[in-house]
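Re: that backbone. Tokens:
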């Protein structure tokens, strides 16, 4: 125990002082140097040593709070991919449209869906249907590409923290249906949605839906409140018994609340060398459990870390 603790203290001291780190590390026994290199290459170690500049505050203007009886689900909106939908959803939220509506569909290994299942609730000043925003032009879009091939797109990576794909030849980009991503439900008509019913991916990636639904954001906190809900027993996970619906207490825009009532969060930026190192630590895991690193990774297998905002 003392040896392990001693190593931990040495490593902590090395990490705490970058200027002395190299000199101290060079004077350590080879076994300790190897352990230090090993620990520094794991995803957790990468995040622990990430500089403050590697994190970004999640904009309250682009943050929804879906308050459930069990707690709060925090959703970061993506207006850069779906500006018309996001604007319409903001109108719906500010009118209290979602308050009291249910999570009426929970399909195993697929989605949890909430909103107005009847289509009868007034949308007020908002619109019931908005033209589809399945994809957008590549031009002007920040994009950090992954080095590995993808089954569903010529290129995948991250844009402003969101898992995305693009086709450089045709100049188009779109969001990927990874775990935690939020999209707008629709009927067979591509323009039949508007944000009055939304879904979150609670199971494996639904990449076959890419460019078939308008993606409006991602859950950044509270996913267990959705992923652990009882599954619906009807077609596509619909709840046959309305008594099993979970009622939404309210949906709010964070910017509309006083700071004391907000959930202040930061997300790891996806346009920095730290993120590149983080991706590499996931592509080639060196944790003790891993014996054969994969050497590649899919866009939906890279969770974007989120933490409580650090006050400076």
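Recovered sequence:
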């Amino acid at each position: 125990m003392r040896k392990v603790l001693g190593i931990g203290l040495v490593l902590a001291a090395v990490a705490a002082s970058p200027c002395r780190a190299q000199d101290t590390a060079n004077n350590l026994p080879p076994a300790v140097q190897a352990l230090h290199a090993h620990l520094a290459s794991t995803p957790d170690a990468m995040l622990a040593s990430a500089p403050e500049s590697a994190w970004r505050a999640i904009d309250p203007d682009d943050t929804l709070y879906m308050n459930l009886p069990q707690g709060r689900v925090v959703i970061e909106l993506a207006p850069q991919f779906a500006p018309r939908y996001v604007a319409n959803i903001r109108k719906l939220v500010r009118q209290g449209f979602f308050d009291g509506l249910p999570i009426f569909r929970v399909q195993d290994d697929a989605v949890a869906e909430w909103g107005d299942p009847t289509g009868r609730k007034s949308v007020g000043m908002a619109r019931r249907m908005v033209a589809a925003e399945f994809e957008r032009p590549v031009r002007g879009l920040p994009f950090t590409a992954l080095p590995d091939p993808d089954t569903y797109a010529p290129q995948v990576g991250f844009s402003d923290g969101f898992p995305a794909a693009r086709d450089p030849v045709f100049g188009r980009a779109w969001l990927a249906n990874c775990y935690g991503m939020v999209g707008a439900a629709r009927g067979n008509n591509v323009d039949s949605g508007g944000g009055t019913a939304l879904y979150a991916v609670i199971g494996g990636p639904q990449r076959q839906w890419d460019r078939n639904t308008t993606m409006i954001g991602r859950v950044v906190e509270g996913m267990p409140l959705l992923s652990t809900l009882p599954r619906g027993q009807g077609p596509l996970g619909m709840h046959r018994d309305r008594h099993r619906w979970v009622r939404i207490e309210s949906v709010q825009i964070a910017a509309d609340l006083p700071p004391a009532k907000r959930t202040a969060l930061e997300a790891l930026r996806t346009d920095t060398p730290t993120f590149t190192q983080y991706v590499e630590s996931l592509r080639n895991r060196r944790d003790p459990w891993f014996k054969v690193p994969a050497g590649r990774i899919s866009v939906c297998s890279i969770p974007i870390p989120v933490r409580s905002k650090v006050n400076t």
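Residues 161 and 270 are 6 Å apart (CA to CA). Helices lie at 2-16, 18-26, 30-40, 43-48, 83-94, 223-227, 273-283.
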